Amino acid sequence: MSMNNSSEKIDRGRRSFIGVTAGTAAVAVAPGVVLHTMAGAAPRSEAVTSDVRWGMLIDTAKCADGCDACVKACDDENGLNLQIKPEGEGDAKWDQQVAKWIRKVKLQDNATGHLTNLPLMCQHCEHPPCVDVCPTGASFKRADGIVMVDRHTCIGCRYCMMACPYKARSFIHEVVAEKLTRAPRGKGCVESCNLCVHRRDNGESSTACVDACAAEGHNAILFGDLKDPESPLSKALGALPSRQIRQDLALNTGVRYSGV
Amino acid sequence: MAKAVVRGSLISIGLVGALLASIVQAAGDSYVVPGSKAAQLENCVEPTDFMRRNHMEVIQHQRDETVHNGIRSTQHSLAGCIECHVSYEAESTPVPVDSEGQFCETCHNFAAVGVNCFGCHATVPALTDREAAAEVASRADLGWHPPITMSTPAVQGLQPETGGEGR
Prior knowledge:
The complex is a heterodimer. Chain A is of the alpha+beta class.
C-alpha cells in the first residue's frame, strides 16, 4: 500500500496548540483544584487522570506457537465465550462475525522461513483513528490512555472498524442472551480490548491475558504504566528493543512488540 | 374548533396528572420482591419518593461517570440496583430482575415504560455479589418492603419532593 506522506501527515503543531489551549482553560475554570493519583485497591472513587498511561510490551520471542491461553482468558474475563452462533449459520461466517478482542497472528519471513507469533489486540493509540472518525463520540480515549467504546452512545455504524489499522474491533451481530456484570454486551455495538478496564477501576494490577500467559510459564506480556519511569514496563522498554506495529502511522501505540 | 382542542388537551393533561397521582399511590405498597435484599432495608440508596421519580437519571449520571471516569465506588450503579432487588429461587439461584413478577418488570409494566438496560446489562448479580446477597436473603424473615412515610427514621428531616409532577 503506497501512501502520500505529505497529505496524510498529521499536524502535530495544531494538535498540541489545541491541547495547550484546552489545558489553560481548564486551569482557569478550576483554580485550586489539586489532582492526585489514587493509591491502592478498592473501587475507584475519583476520576481517572492522565498521570498514568496504561500499556503493554509483548515479547514475541516468548510467545509460543499453538498457545492461545491469552485468547481463552480474554474470552472468559470479558464474556466473549457467551456469544452463541445463530441457528443455521455456517462456521466460516460465524468465525468472521464473532467478536474477538485478541487474535493470534503468525508472521513468516519468506526469505528465511522464520516464524513469529504474536497476540494482536487494540493497540490503545495516543492518536486513535477510531476516535477521529466516530460520528457520535462513542469511541473515546480515557484519560489514562485506554481506548474504548461507550455503548450507550454507539450507533453501530462501524466507521471505527474501517479506520482501525489493526482490525482490532468487532461488531456484535446477534442478541446476547447471557451477559457478565463486568462486561455488558448487546446487539448493534462495536467493542474491542479495553485493557480489562474493570480491573483497572478496581485497583488490580494486571490483565486477564497477562495472568494467563504467566500461568503458562511464557511471561510474554508485560502490563504497566508507560508514564512511570520506575514501572517494570518502562524498565523493560528501556532494556529491550521494541517497535510499534505500523509505526509509520505515527499513532504512538500503547502496546509495543519486541522481536518483530 | 380551536377552543375545543384546547379544552380537550387540558382535560387530557388533567387525566394524566390524576393517573400519575394514582401510580404513586398504588406504588405506595411497593413492588419490592420478597426475598430480595431490598425487602429488608428501610429505603433505597436515596429516599424512596426520590428514587421512584428519578432513578433513571441517577443511573444515567452514574453510567457516564463509570464509563468515562472509571468511578465505580458509588451506590448509584445499575449493578447495585440488581444486586439488591434480585430475588432467589431454591439453592440461591437468582431470578432475572426483568422477568415476569420481578421488581423492574412489574413496575415498568404498570407504568407502561420500556426498559432498555438489559439489552446489554446482566439481569442477575455477579457471582461474588450473588453469594453475598444470597447470604443476606437467607438470614431473615422476608417481608414486603415497609411503606416509607415522612416519619420513617431514614427520611426524617427531608423535604417531600415537590415540583416533580408530570415528569
